[in-house]
Amino acid sequence: MKHAVQVEVLRELLQQLDEGVNADAGGVRAAPATTYTCPDLAKQEWARFFRGHPQVVGMSGDLPEPGSFMTTEDFGVPVLVTRDRDGVAHAFLNACRHRGSMVEQAPKGRKTLFTCPFHAWTYDAAGALVGLPMEAHFGAVDRACLGLVELPCVEHLGFLLVHPDPKGVIDTEALFQGVAEDFESWGWGRYVVGLEQALDMKLNWKLATDTFGETYHFKRLHKDTLANNFHGDVLSYRSYDRNHRMILCLKGIDALRDRPEAEWRIEDGGFPVYFLFPNVVINVDAHRIAVVRVYPHPDDPGRSVSKISYYFAPEALAENPALATTFSEAFTRVVAAEDYATAETTQRALASGLLPEVLFGRNEPPLHHYHNTFRKALDLEPLPFLAPTS
Fold this sequence. Notes:
Blueprint: H1 3-19, E1 29-32, H2 34-37, H3 39-50, E2 55-59, E3 68-72, E4 79-83, E5 89-93, E6 108-110, E7 113-115, E8 122-124, E9 129-131, H4 135-138, E10 150-151, E11 153-156, E12 159-162, H5 172-175, H6 180-186, E13 192-201, H7 205-210, E14 230-239, E15 244-250, H8 266-269, E16 270-276, E17 280-285, E18 288-296, E19 304-312, H9 314-319, H10 323-351, E20 357-360, H11 365-377
Antiparallel strand pairs: 1-20, 2-12, 3-4, 3-6, 4-5, 5-10, 7-8, 8-9, 11-12, 13-19, 14-15, 15-16, 16-17, 17-18, 18-19
């Protein structure tokens, strides 16, 4: 983030504190309970946002060197992601071209060859079929046509992107619209992965995302945790076409009042949180980030899995090897035990059919933005305001 932008944001937060105001969405909106419970809507989201849209499968640090690989099935397609000998990332359907068995089942590792356990057909990191036992017995085949099914894959701004459709398009300009300049300045491409975890929760995937969308709850739900370090009810907010950036306000901002602006740094008074459409939330701390990817259950709108990966500047981990554990434990203690646990009670109430809607206050603009973004992508009308916007 450019220094001029850091100063602009910190000034805004200080002004909000002084004036007792918050980011303002202009009114209160109502979201129908079916947003989180409707099976038909969930099927549309699964098809449009996950099976039909590029997915962030990880960061550059997940493939730290040539020969690195990772696998995922988070969006309903078994995927193998590799880094070849030249350092180029590739993605493939994780299925042998002989009988369809997975060629790799480990979540991560380092290999130059991938051998199907069924009949030992073998592929290299660029997907080429390089080994076929008893080829004379099997029969004549054109190896050049029997490489792994390749999926579109792009490495950009430190992110690994894969499209589940072999004919899909990855438009990085559209995917990172509004946030690319910030991401480039952070330099996350050099970060290394420190720890990963998965939270399987009984709540809709959008309800999980909602918990990252406002600071109204900090002084209430997080009164014994986040409220110790954050000013609640304060938020710098910028929305773009499908993405957004929020800057939460750290209590350390108060110390900046007596320092020249040339010395201001965002980490001293702000905590950036980015949303990447459709399901990625990036929490930015000094020399470390937590990347949350929220996936719906393909058959149950009341369930979701949050994959949380923690990445660090290499020098930060070298200085404090325990940082990965302490950072992840603190993050999970708040997200799982407070945010998600509370949201699970919301899901149960919505599933009863007795609660017709939930409300998004004017002090919760991120909720307005991404819910209307989801709705627009599904050709639905925007959520209505309940009151005049003046």
